[in-house]
Design goal:
- 62% of the residues lie in helices and 5% in strands.
- It is mostly helical.
- The protein has one domain: f41 fragment of flagellin, N-terminal domain.
- β1 and β2 form a beta hairpin.
- The longest helix is centred in the last third of the chain and has 54 residues.
């Protein structure tokens, strides 16, 4: 069988191209630390990797959202603790001292009243605190300050008087405000019911309407259920020409009872914080597990990959050397 020079060259070029391709593939694996760089190289692995990447990035989104919710909730807790500290100060320092007979002069009472009014404004400021550009205690309307203390002592929540009487439209609106929810997906399988409403157990509710913490409406005796309004009424009693100690004592008792709602909300926030911490641990463990799965599908054994690359580099260098000796001298080379 006659083997022509052209046949040898064609065969050599084909084998050299194969050697170069193999070398490039092994080089890419070492440089990228990936088993494949296109779906064509491993369709099954690429499909599996695509699913894992979607889960991984979804988990990353959940982690980012959880950290944001934690920061928001920390802000809520800090604000409520500030209000709680003010309430404790009023209850302790302006109850016994004011009712002490030596402190019932008009001038002294006027000083106490001024201090309470400053505390009243401070409570409103704390409940109008923000996280980034969102008001923390505004329910679903986070773009507008929820509380507004008017000059006449009226306190409004989202433009509705918090002292609305039971049975009125304003009271019904306040009740609706107090039940508002603001759900976020933290990887618990967010789902909706047949009415397209979020199933509470499948999401985290980060809403905390301010009136739930500070109170709204009136009791059966016509006394306010709001701690800020009651503090203003305490100041009003102190500013009267004739001090009514009995009315002050009764109002202070109501103030202390209403203020207990603050502690309940702070405790509830503590429970939510514990839940968020547990959820964060779960998401972080899921993150590690997904990374390990992606590594098993896409990753390579670096020692093995480097060995393959070195061998392919050796084969390529050998092929180049073979190329220099392919064309043996022919009859034409000896013609003069």
């Amino acid at each position: 069988m006659r083997i022509t020079t052209n046949a040898i060259i064609r065969n050599y070029k084909s084998n050299l191209a194969t050697t170069i391709g193999t070398l490039n593939t092994s080089r890419d694996r070492v440089m990228t630390n990936r088993r494949f760089t296109s779906a064509a190289q491993d369709p099954g692995g690429a499909a599996r990797a695509s699913q894992l990447h979607r889960k991984y990035y979804k988990n990353q989104d959940n982690l980012s959202m959880l950290k944001d919710v934690q920061s928001r909730q920390d802000g809520q807790e800090d604000s409520l603790r500030q209000v709680s500290d003010i309430v404790k100060t009023i209850s302790k320092d302006y109850s016994i001292q004011v009712l002490n007979g030596t402190n019932q002069t008009k001038e002294v009472r006027q000083g106490y009243a001024s201090a309470i009014r400053q505390f009243q404004k401070s409570m409103v400021l704390s409940l109008n605190s923000t996280y980034e550009d969102t008001f923390l205690f505004a329910g679903t309307d986070g773009k507008n300050p929820p509380f507004n203390l008017l000059d006449d002592g009226t306190l409004t929540y989202r433009d509705v008087n918090v002292d609305a009487a039971n049975g009125t439209d304003d009271f019904a609106q306040l009740r609706n405000f107090s039940k508002e929810n603001l759900y976020v997906d933290l990887g618990m399988g967010l789902s909706t019911d047949e009415w397209n409403s979020v199933v509470p157990s499948s999401a985290f509710d980060m809403s905390l309407p301010g009136i739930n913490a500070i109170g709204y409406g009136k009791d059966k005796d016509g006394m306010s259920n709001n701690a800020i309004v009651l503090s203003g009424q305490l100041a009003d009693l102190l500013e009267q020409e004739e001090f009514d100690a009995e009315s002050y004592r009764k109002l202070m008792g109501k103030f202390e009872n209403v203020s207990s709602g603050l502690l309940n909300n702070i405790t509830e926030l503590g429970v939510k914080s514990e839940f968020l911490s547990t959820t964060k641990d779960r998401l972080e463990n899921t993150d590690i597990a997904l990374q390990e799965q992606m590594e098993s599908v896409e990753g390579i054994d670096m020692a093995e990959a480097i060995s393959d690359y070195m061998w392919n580099q050796y084969a390529y260098n050998a092929a180049l050397k073979v190329g220099t000796s392919i064309l043996s001298p022919s009859f034409i080379d000896f013609m003069k």
